[in-house]
Write a structure and sequence with these properties.
Elements: H1 2-28, H2 40-57, H3 67-92, H4 99-130, E1 132-137, H5 142-150, E2 159-165, H6 166-169, H7 178-184, E3 190-193, H8 195-198, H9 201-212, E4 216-219, H10 220-228, H11 233-239, H12 246-249, H13 251-286, E5 292-298, E6 304-310, H14 334-342, H15 349-355, E7 359-361, H16 368-377, E8 390-392, H17 394-398, H18 405-421, H19 424-440
Parallel strand pairs: 1-2, 1-3, 3-4, 7-8
Antiparallel strand pairs: 5-6
Amino acid sequence: MKNTAGAIFQAGVAVAVTGVATAHAHLIAPEPYDLLRSSRLGWWVVVVVVAMAGGYGLGLPELPASRRDAALRGLGTTIAAAVVVSLAQLTLAAPLLPRSSLGLLVGVIPVWSVICWNLAADVETWQSRRDQVFLVAEEPDEHAALAYELSGRPERPASVIASLPVPKARLGPDGRARLVEAVSATSASVIVLDTSAQSDDGIVQQVARLHGRGLRVRTLALFYEGWLGKLPLAELARISLLFDIGELHRLRYVRSKRVIDFALGLVGTAALVVALPVVWIGNSLANSGPLFFSQPRVGKDGEVFTIHKFRTMTPSGGDGPAEWTAERDPRITPFGGFLRRSHLDELPQMINVLKGELSIVGPRPEQPHYVADLRDKIPFYDVRHLVRPGLTGWAQVKQGYAADEADALEKLQYDFYYLRRQGLALDLRIIWRTARGVIAGSGR
């Protein structure tokens, strides 16, 4: 439903630009003209495309935190369109579109952004009321854990309204359906069962009755997958081999992915060549030390390769393994912070992409000593190394970069979701979300 709010926003932007263009052609221009036959039509289309792309990149209408934020992001999309047209006018030395008409959009699109933001917020509230979860689990803290997960940015909003431990959900000595009674006393619409609840015949029998009344039923793993876009850590060992992986089982996908990687790698390498002199100058003035940062990482099939980035931190002065990078890490230099926020520091990795060591999309590669440590603690951790690691990935767009071991375990849950659903559709979705983050200026 939130996607509907986004589609309405995009349609409204197109209507607003079309309305302003039509009004100028018939009402504002000193001499009325036929818009469809005018050379200005193509440039108005450019305004529509840039404004729609800018709105998407800035996360309209669902990402703003307030009406003011929504209005500012709407203003940003309008300014982006105006800047593109203005640069084209300067380059071509010709008046392409009237500035007065572009100015009208400054008043229209921000207001429309606020309206659609309200719509998205209302839809999210409605969805939260609709997806009411009743949890049956053996662990008493599973309720709080699931509620915490849903308080973030789930793929589908929901809330945990009640839970019942497995012993109390079983059939009573007299055959009393205690789970049915408990669920019937709530407004639950989704019943979630952990592994222990699924193995109890009496609980399954009661859930079958509730299912017949129209309630949806999910295992804990399937609920995490559908609502949170991840797989629960407690379930990973059970399902680590129970799904196909695109890079192992679908040859057509493997070839298509490599073609896309190579094409985007060439584009990225061209961007690297353009950015290199600018970064070199900035590094020389405000980030003294080596231009590049190289580090061993674990790739496909456990092979170690060297990853390359523009350096963003003060030189370590040692050859030991690097520490986890924390948010607002004091080692990050001011110019390095700019490189991280703009993601320019990632451009040298395009060489790794062309060499086949990295893919554009995949689990983010870790340092060998972290892998060795996590491999000892999680026997199935190496499953993530069955595919080529990525420049970006599902864990990055959902969680960001790991800052400690706990974050690495959290990221693993998203990595397994990616492995389970790996395909071109999900890859393109991740690329779009990454592009949105780059445009919005979110950094590490």
